[in-house]
């Protein structure tokens, strides 16, 4: 998953909305029904080790499933941006009702 520049400079634990710009059908997000163009709630997390060495960024994506259960999936910037890409939309305050996902 690749992240746009605005997301890379958010503070750790920042809560925000991102648009899914591109998404691979092999992605865990795809498995739970997320598609390109969707808006998702995210929270920045600290750096993570990359499979090719070095460190990268990761975010937790929060999903509401059809049975009203919540699912959180951690995605990192370890994949090519031509396969998966999240784009920052806006920053949220935790519990902010104005930060509802709308499509």
- How far is the first residue's CA from the last residue's CA? 21 Å
- The CATH topology comes to SH3 type barrels
Q: If helices are DSSP runs of H or I spanning 4 or more residues, what is the number of helices?
A: 2
Proper CATH architecture: Roll
Most strands sheet = 6 strands, mixed
Low-confidence stretches: none
Integer-rounded radius of gyration = 13 Å
β-strand percent reads 35-45%
Helix percentage range: under 10%
Read across the widest sheet, the strand sequence of neighbours is 1-6-2-3-4-5
How many E-type strands? 6
Properties at a glance:
single chain, 103 residues, mainly beta, SH3 type barrels, six-stranded mixed beta sheet, 6 strands, globular
Describe this structure in words.
The structure is a single chain. The protein has 103 residues and is mainly beta. The chain has a single domain (2-94), classed as SH3 type barrels. It contains 2 helices and 6 strands. The protein has helices at 5-8, 28-31; strands at 2-3, 15-22, 39-49, 55-64, 70-76, 85-92. A 6-stranded mixed beta sheet has the order 1-6-2-3-4-5. It is globular and about 40 Å long. It starts with a strand and ends in an 11-residue tail after the last strand.
Question: Nutshell version of this structure?
Answer:
This protein is mostly beta strands and 103 residues long.
Describe how the helices and strands are arranged.
Elements: E1 2-3, H1 5-8, E2 15-22, H2 28-31, E3 39-49, E4 55-64, E5 70-76, E6 85-92
Parallel strand pairs: 1-6
Antiparallel strand pairs: 2-3, 2-6, 3-4, 4-5
């Amino acid at each position: 998953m690749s992240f746009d520049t605005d997301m890379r400079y958010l503070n750790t634990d920042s809560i925000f909305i991102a648009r899914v710009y591109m998404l691979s059908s092999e992605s865990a997000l795809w498995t739970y029904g997320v598609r390109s163009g969707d808006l998702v709630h995210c929270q920045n997390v600290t750096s993570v080790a990359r499979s090719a060495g070095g460190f990268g960024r990761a975010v937790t994506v929060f999903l509401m499933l059809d049975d009203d259960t919540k699912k959180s999936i951690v995605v990192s910037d370890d994949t090519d941006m031509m396969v998966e890409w999240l784009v920052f939309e806006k920053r949220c305050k935790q519990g902010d009702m104005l930060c509802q996902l709308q499509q």
